[in-house]
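Two proteins, back to back. First:
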Amino acid sequence: MEILTSIAITVATTIFIVLSFTIYLTIRIFTGKSRNDKRYAPVHATVFALLFHRDELYDYETEIARTKPTYRFLSPGQSEILTADPRNVEHILKTRFDNYSKGPAGRENLADLLGHGIFAVDGEKWRQQRKLASFEFSTRVLRDFSCSVFRRNASKLVGFVSGFALSGKAFDSQDMLMRCTLDSIFKVGFGVELKCLDGFSKKGEEFMEAFDEGNVATSSRYIDPLWKLKWFLNIGSQYKLKKSIATIDKFVYSLITTKRKELAEEHNTVVREDILSRFLVESEKDPENMNDKYLRDIILNFMIAGKDTTAASLSWFLYMLCKNPLVQEKIVQEIRDVTSSHEKTTDVNGFIESINEEALDQMQYLHAALSETLRLYPPVPVDTRCAENDDVLPDGHRVSKGDNVYYIAYAMGRMTYIWGQDAEEFKPERWLKDGVFQPESPFKFISFHAGPRICLGKDFAYRQMKIVSMALLHFFRFKMADEKSSVRYKTMLTLHLTDFSAGRLKKADNKKRKKKTSKAMEILTSMAIIVVTTIFIVLSFALYLTIRIFTGKSRNDKRYTPVHATIFDLFFNSDKLHDYETEIARKKPTFRFLSPGQSEILTADPRNVEHILKTRFDNYSKGPVGRENLADLLGHGIFAVDGKKWKQQRKLVSFEFSTRVLRNFSCSVFRRSASMLVSFVAEFALSGNAFDAQDMLMRCTLDSIFKVGFGVELRCLDGFSKEGEEFMKAFDEGNVATSSRFTDPLWKLKCFLNIGSESRLQKSVATIDKFVYSLITTKRKELAKEQNTAVREDILSKFLLESEKDPENMNDKYLRDIILNFMVAGKDTTAASLSWFLYMLCKNPLVQEKIVQEIRDVTSSHEKTTDVNGFIESINEEALDQMQYLHAALSETVRLYPPVPKDMRCAENDDILPDGHRVSKGDNIYYIAYTMGRMTYIWGQDAEEFKPERWLKDGVFQTESPFKFISFHAGPRICPGKDFAYRQMKIVSTALLHFFRFKMADEKSNVCYKRMLTLHVEGGLHLCAIPRTSS
């Protein structure tokens, strides 16, 4: 059984942790995001939707932007705001530039690939690199040098395309353009002849492939919530990224080393024409900060700007020309006009040399066509900034500190509210006026970024694209290898085409199959991660708890109480908790359960109870666990505190309960409620229908406690108070949830995630608070208007008057706590005890009849008495005192079914109990009243029998030691309302039993308790009432 228990606990824990992890993410996503606040951008979905739509991500975002120019996805920790509104873009990138940075998420996502390069940093590092780069890009030397490189590589590209054109074979133009721009950027940027286009550089090809793979993997971080776990486990996309970075780093560090040697050997200006040489010279001024790692980052950022964006843009440009052949021919005509060439020109080098600065400036239509391509297919389709402080965007939407704001260039290029109804058409003419190119606002045409971070290489990019385009279009006309093929983009930092091939169709199909396999593998990887993570968390959590449970507990030291099991056994046996503990106590009057941090000691030994509650009272407090467990429901009320607060409340309550005014007032309320209760039961008795006695008694005692305690006619019994019923239901729900904290080691996690019992508790507390604070406010107003004593008969009025002496400490929150503690004492315990009392009378009909006979003898009534009010008025103080057998039967009930089945204290210091067992500081000690009532070593061999006679001697009730009969507590904290409770129970019992005989609605039904702070009957107590009187 112990093995099965452990297996069940493990399975349950696993399921719970999986659900908790899922719910944790969900709650982290939905918590504090002002989802329905119209001041914030409308919420479209969660970040998981982006992951789901990753293959068509930019089109998915575009569709949303058509109706919501600014909108949100919710993610753990913050909102992901996306905007296609140029006003917002200008605000982020220029107006409030200092308030929007790369942010922690942006920097972290880019760090492994781009390090501290210009695209991945803010502040001083960004300014330093920007300053150096700005100076270099402004020099004529670099411009002339770069143009000569672009022409030379364009000439080589023409040569390679010629080979395919002559053979009639298709080719992958994007791959060829990538190689061409890579060669160019390596020559211009780093002074290296890579020869990737020629296919002579195996290392160059490996580097290019690794860089593209790293680009894809880095991009996935923005939509993959599990990327950190993949990185940690070295699997999936993050495994590929690590592998790519290793290849990249090896190549780049080798390049830096080689370049340093060249600079050391040569000092002529030719060597220093490239940008890396200039950065290396600059690094000599600050070698500590501008080390090889920093230079590596600069190189890779320059790479992404110079290779990826230009090659990708040229690829989309050729695609658009294939789809728009008239535009292609217009550009060709412009080339011929500007260069004074004709279609029969075959001198490649001669023609390309004619593409000088003047010719490039005259290519207005080509410039427009390239810009139109960039509008629809921006090289960086989406970029992000993070709000450093709360802000309001120009469109009126609020942004919270830490929110990521994405400006979606791909979507902006397709918005009719930006570009007109023809926004999705490829129309270079939109950029021209009288044949001259007209630039647009950079916040509308965002392809080259805008504001202080606008792209420094914009003119270089146009220059390279124009040179390559002119060279290719002068010598060739392009068309798709397969006109029916669908060209898609690849989700990366830069907008590459997926399988855009002007040929090699068979190879492309193989690539598709590989990609499908790759996607499937990525899904399987994610699933594997979840499974592995779950197992890892479960094992780690189990190991942590095991260590915490078994560390420092002196398990085999006979000076301490014997260990029975761990706290998980209590959790597993929670539905039959009190009986489970009782079975153990039959053999071990004092025993232990091990829990994280301390031992949970349970005792049924009256000597120990007296020691804890009286002899060493000052050494045993509610303790941190007790206070914390009760705090949300009972706050700082008398049952949840120690010290000064307890003394203050105890003093006030003791005084009130000792006054004759309150005693008389409460008895009149109890009689009135009992009279109403008889009337309601009479209806069921006459109809022959069963009713839930516990529910009715709860309503009755609630009405009584509200009148006596708070001076309010609640009328919950007659069903006139909807708010009262909601309050009662919420209070019972809160009671159950609070009780579960004492056996549930995961309650804090549930509370943090706001799930399960803790979610119900928070909901219940909200309902309770609303009701109670309203009650306090109303009562204050009543007291302000009236000054007569009638208003002040109730206990709340007296506490309110007392609060005027110390309004700072006795505030409404404190009064709320006092009310709810009074509620637990006055409603739950009395109604629950009366329910168990009626249940015992149904199970012991002879006892029921004995009580009825005593009632008749004491009140001088007989079975034909039908005057309910008249009979109840006869239940006076004298009559109640004479009800000895009834008093015994009620005491016997609360012996077996104590209203508080179990209570706890915590040891402030080490101690030794009277039974010889040691207690360590911080140990929780439970005295188990439910168990004590069933122990033969306390009550004799007939301990489990319902036997009121055990309390009588010569017909007179005999009190027992409160440390043996612990139902009303004992010592300095003994229940001050004990006599009030007996009085109410006697009045209600006398009224009901005089007029009705009770039996179970279903004699075969098994009645169980509900695990709460107080001992309720599970599912209610369904009885039938038979009238004793005749009309």
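And the second protein:
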Amino acid sequence: MLHEVVSVRVPPKGHTRRAAATARPSSSQDIAYYLRVFRDELKRDPTTVECFDLAQGNSEHSRHWFFGGKVVIDEEEMPLTLFQWVKRPLKERISNSVIGFHDNSSALRGYSHTNFMPSGSVAQPGAFQEVARDYDITLTVETHNFPCGIAPFPGAETGAGGRIRDGESTGKGSLVVAAVAGYATGNLHIPGYKMPWEFEDFKYPSNMASGALVCSYDEGGAIQPQAFGAVDAGGEHLYAVQATKALWQVWDWNSKRSSYRASLPEKITAMVFSPDSSLCFAGAQTGSIYCWLSSTGALLRYWPAHFREVTQLLVSPDGGYLVSASKDSAVHVYNLADVFEDTSGAPKPFHSWSGHSLAVTALALLGGSSALHQVVASGSLDRTVRLWDVGSGRPLQSRSLSAQVNALCAGAAASELVVAGHHGELRSLETKDFGREGGVYLGHSCNVLSCAMSSDGASLASCSEVERVRVWETRTRQCVAQLHGQRDVKISAVKILRRMPHLPSLPPFQPFQRLLCEELPERVLRGVSGREAQLKERMAPYARAEGMLEHVHWASGVLASKASEGTDLGDELLRAKENETRWAKVANQLYRIVTEHGFTWLETQEQQVLIDCSNGASDYGNKFGEPLICGWTRSCGMRMPSGERFEWVKPIMLSGGLGQMDHGHLVKEEPQAGQLVVKIGGPAYRIGVGGGAASSMVAGDNQEELDFNAVQRGDAEMQQKVNRVVRACVELGPKNPILSIHDQGAGGSGNVLKEISEPAGAVIDLRKMHVGDPSMSFLEIARMRGMCAEERGANAEELWTAEFQENNALLLGKESEALFDQICKREKVPYAVVGTITGDGKVVVKDSRDNSCPVDLPLDKVLGKMPQKVFKMQRIYKQLPKALDLPASLTVQVALETGVLRLLSVCSKRFLTNKVDRSVTGQIAQQQCVGPLQTPLADFACIAQSPLSTSGGATAIGEQPLKGLAGDPESCVSMARLAVAEALTNLAWIRIPTLDSIKASGNWMWAAKLPGEGPKMYDIAEAGGALIG
């Protein structure tokens, strides 16, 4: 795809004419080079941190080895590298280019104009005044596919945020004005909207994001947050109790209409089923607890457990005891054997805990080897979380927090407890060391109402009052997806359920009785006297798939409902054995929902990726205050005549930005000894670890967990604060304190701090960095005392290479530190002076507390000119494309109705334009909706340099990816030429000084290292460079 940018004169308002303007990416060559450097020159072994640093900093993502490498096609060495071809037009006709191929953005010579600037001190408010400025037009464009495929919403935030930092880090700082975006995905498979080329048998990688809305159930009113979930362990039946009425409903997974709906004795505030689904427990607003037999609806027990509302109920995994919490600040534990064996009066709890001073709002069970070895966690409005031992009844530990507790959850391993609370609080506590924080989940900005953890502890889901549902990876505490339901629907609770297809239906529910039954059925007594344990023991020899015993909970539920019919337990066991293969298959499908069993996906994988990608980019821009004014979108996936599959399985997300910069700030200053190395922006988190390497690999070559680790997160509010600091410095004109600025991206601090100190070198103190997640830092005193050198190195590796977003590095003179401090305090932006320029040519990373040195590298060896790589490839296209031959029966009307107008690249783009700001800043002369009906999309976008000027910049996009599908040189050349032609014709209505003032930015998102793909890319680069030059 090609992006044209031009500096233009914009007609003033009223003018009759409209403004027509951690993987191992290193190759054997890299390893041999560094082996020689360390063995022969440095004469020492590299540290773990240095190895990880070099892998990220020298990845394809960071160093562009392929573009700078020697290309050999069919044993013939090509005359120029890819870089030489794309740089050729600039070299031969520099014209009005002032920055090209040597900074974070390109820039064209702009115009002198009048703008509004603050007149007061940087630390004090003051009036604006008209000031003459000489600004150049900047353009930066980058493409992402790896992060958007793994986690679309945060992945698109990564693209938008990273591109904004590229723009503001040009020269000595530049101004961000407007954005462009583009999206390319695979087949959408929209229900009822099938395209003839969409193949149903196409498979997608397991680590690609889904987040698909499978089904929604809507039959009246809000639900009680602690009274909904799955009836059975297989997730086939969902239940919910209404919040405003004494009603409850049950849905079969395959049906949107409730299969059961009935009244309850009173308003219920908490409900839970026993593990075998045979018993239902409910807590009432009055403090009473009810217990029904699911198969008959018989009310088995009822007793006044609390004197205020029951807030939550839990049943132990073995069905042995019931835990209740209440607004009366008490937690009770009931032995179910006692509850059913003695019916003469209200059962007494065998433990009653009253350590909280306010209402208990949340419960969680921390598993043990048996029921009596388990621990109950309780959270309260008194801002404390307490742990209680079930066996002894003793209080174990207590932890005070900064916010009221709304929910608790823990995984099966019970190694961490997650706490959800007010004011966006979502944090984990380590259960073995309860006084120590496991980490913070950042992203929610308002009260977090609910949280739930997957059974293996790998994923966490949470919901808040505004931001709907977020899904997190617990190991990195990084948001990997945002799930959105219907508009104007408040999500008050979230659960993670195991969906097991092929399970037999539960017996139909009978109306829940309001009167106690006179005598307890024998099957209930059998159920609480160890029948389930016996069943597990007898089924154990048949369990071959991991997790099968958990499914037996459901099977025992079926037994409990059939016991009165005389069904023999042994017969049921034999039947289970006969179905062993089926059970094994189900057990291995814990996290993926199959769609071939009678229900329809409302949103497919690629469809959801497109929606979440565009949501992420739009959301980030809206929060930051950057309008999105130009773009494109395309969907394609097909089977080629050769049998090869062509599809954007990893979606392409393009993010570009138009901006401007002071002409006096074009050139970064060279680092000099004594200058300060500063980092500004958000604190460090364990996110984006290994992103440079992971995004440089062929899809599927990396481990899934490493893919997820590499996706960053977005914080548009912090980015806006950083941008205001950069803007304030830029507006100071010749008094700008910034000497040089670089954005933090792939490789994290390790990469950006080496870049900004090259070639002079610097000494960096890791203790000076702001750390938001103490668990990732080896600098914490408590951990340092008991940590071996290898462990310290591993944590330093995370801190030094994590690509946490919204962070820049810059150079300041010592005399400018006070001024910069004033600006940062005014904008409430954290910054840290992490080091100084030394002038010895080395980057040295130290810990000032113990004087350890995890990194000590000569910059000329790691960033200097390294040996050129050679890439050998072959052309393997099967045949030349045939001439276009349209069938005689194909009329224009049929072509439009069945194909052209249904293409994503042609149809309405309101699903993209209606959710994003298109005019903020007051500098937008032409955005993407045009005409009297504001129809998307315009051919170009145009910005003014200021609200007072009639000059500005314009950009247009040309993309023709399908023209070269055949793969032969002629088709690839046609693709390049048509992309250039499309971009130029889209600019036809722009008034420009000369044709030479138009400059092109080419972006390739190509799997060039796959067999046969490299020559295609070379042909396109050669054709594009020759045409533009």
